[in-house]
Write a structure and sequence with these properties.
The complex is a heterodimer of chains A (about 240) and B (about 45). With about 240 residues, chain A is mainly alpha-helical. Helix content of chain A is about 80%, strand content about 0%. Chain A has one domain. Chain A has helices at about 5-10, 10-40, 55-85, 85-120, 125-150, 150-165, 170-180, 195-235. In chain A, helix 4 (about 85-120) packs antiparallel against helix 8 and helix 5 (about 125-150) runs antiparallel to helix 6. The longest helix of chain A is centred in the C-terminal third of the chain and has 41 residues, at about 195-235. Chain A is globular and about 65 Å long. By secondary structure, chain B is mainly α. The longest helix of chain B is centred in the middle third of the chain and has 37 residues, at about 10-45. The radius of gyration of chain B is 19 Å and the shape is rod-shaped. Classes of the chains: A mainly alpha (about 240), B mainly alpha (about 45). The interface between A and B is medium-sized, with 35 and 30 residues.
Chain lengths: ~240, ~45
C-alpha cells in the first residue's frame, strides 16, 4: 500500500526529487504570500472586529499548521516504529522545531487578538487555549528528548512513542470548542461563516504557510541526510 | 491597500512583527544549516 512512499524514502531518490521540487514550491509560496498580504490589507474592516481581522490571517494558519505538523510527526513516528525506516525518523525530528514555531505563533498572535476583542491576553479556563499550550510543551519535550539521548536509534524509538502518545491532544484541540463552552469561537471556515472578502486572503495565507512548511521541512531533511554523509566521510578519514 | 490600523495598531503590528521574526528566523536558520553542511561536505570531498 505504501510502496510508492517507500520508493521516495530512499535518501538518494529523495534528494533528487526534493531538489527538483524546491524551486517550484518556494516560488509558489512567495506568490501566495504576496497575494494573501495584498488581499488581506485591502480587505475592509470587519463590522465587529474592525481591522483586528488582519491578525486572523496570520493566527489561524499558524494554529492549523501547529496541529497539522504534529500530525505529520505522529504519522512519521508510526512509520518509524513499524517499518524502522531511517527517513521516517529524520522526517519526524526535523518537523518538530517548525511545529513548535507555528504553535508559538498561534499562541502569541491569538493573545494579541484576544486582548482587544475579549479584554484578556489569556484565559486559563479556555480549553482551546490550554490544549494548544499543552501542544507547545509537547513539542518542546519532544525536541529536548531527541537532544538528551545520544544513541540516535534509541532516541528515535523513545521520541516516536512520545509523539504517538501526544497525538491524543490533536482531537482535543480540534473539538475543544464543540465539547466545552469556550471563550474561543467555534469553527468558522468549513461551515462557511467567514465572509468571502476575508476567506480569500485567509486561503492564500493558508497556502503560503503550508508551502513554507513543505520547503523548510524538505531542506531540513536534506540537511540531515548530508550531515550523515559528512559524518560517514569523517569516520572513514 | 490600507495600512491604517487605528485603533488596534498596537496589537496588529506586533502580531505581524512576531510572524516575520518567527517564520523569517526558522527560514534563515534552516538555510544557514543547509549551507554550512554543504560547505563542509564540499571541503571533505575535495580531492
Amino acid at each position: 500500500m505504501f510502496d510508492w512512499l517507500f520508493r521516495y524514502a530512499n535518501p538518494a531518490r529523495f534528494m533528487g526529487l526534493s531538489g527538483k521540487l524546491l524551486p517550484w514550491l518556494s516560488a509558489a509560496a512567495l506568490l501566495a504570500l504576496a497575494v494573501g498580504l495584498y488581499l488581506g490589507f485591502s480587505a475592509p474592516p470587519d463590522y465587529q472586529q474592525g481591522r483586528t481581522v488582519l491578525i486572523l490571517f496570520v493566527h489561524v494558519p499558524a494554529a492549523i499548521m501547529a496541529t497539522l505538523v504534529y500530525g505529520c510527526i505522529a504519522v512519521a513516528s508510526l512509520f518509524s516504529l513499524v517499518n524502522r525506516h531511517l527517513l521516517a525518523d529524520v522526517a519526524a525530528r526535523t518537523a518538530a522545531p517548525l511545529g513548535a514555531g507555528f504553535t508559538f505563533l498561534a499562541l502569541t498572535t491569538g493573545s494579541l487578538w484576544g486582548k482587544p476583542m475579549w479584554g484578556a491576553w489569556w484565559a486559563w479556563g479556555d480549553s482551546r487555549l490550554t490544549s494548544t499550550l499543552v501542544q507547545f510543551f509537547l513539542y518542546l519535550g519532544y525536541i529536548a528528548l531527541w537532544n538528551a539521548i545520544e544513541d540516535e536509534t534509541r532516541a528515535a524509538r523513545v521520541c516516536a512513542v512520545l509523539a504517538l502518545v501526544g497525538a491524543v491532544n490533536i482531537p482535543i484541540i480540534k473539538f475543544s470548542v464543540d465539547w466545552w463552552a469556550t471563550l474561543h469561537q467555534g469553527e468558522s471556515i468549513v461551515s462557511g461563516k467567514l465572509a468571502g472578502v476575508f476567506l480569500t486572503p485567509f486561503l492564500f495565507m493558508m497556502v503560503f504557510y503550508m508551502l513554507l512548511f513543505a520547503c523548510l521541512w524538505l531542506v531540513r531533511i536534506r540537511t540531515v541526510i548530508l550531515e550523515r554523509r559528512v559524518r560517514a566521510l569523517m569516520g572513514a578519514a | 491597500m490600507n495600512f491604517d490600523m487605528s485603533p488596534y495598531g498596537a496589537f496588529i503590528w506586533p502580531a505581524y512583527g512576531l510572524t516575520v521574526i518567527v517564520l523569517g528566523g526558522l527560514t534563515l536558520w534552516t538555510i544557514a544549516r543547509w549551507r554550512a553542511v554543504k560547505a563542509k561536505l564540499a571541503s571533505l570531498e575535495k580531492p
